[in-house]
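Task card 7
Instruction: Convert sequence to structure tokens.
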Amino acid sequence: MKKIQYSTVGRNTFLTSLLSGTLLFISYVITEADFLLILGFYFVVIAAVVNLLVLLYELLEFLTDVTDKKSSGNSVLLLLLNIPITILYLLILFNYNM
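Output:
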């Protein structure tokens, strides 16, 4: 079985967004500090913009690449995985605070 290849930029963006968001989420759940909630909101907005820019770059790279190397396409799917993770964290926060 072949190992799935990802582009470096897409993989690093995904991991940075996921780990930073998870750290903020867990920190808020543990401490319930309101400033973490506000910081998390700004983080989601900034991370969404950065992820969208990288996603568009990877998608353009995937569509214009004529070789059989499809690491950019795999990175697009990896970056899209951040969306349901963020929605899950938001749903947990909404239910947690009610």
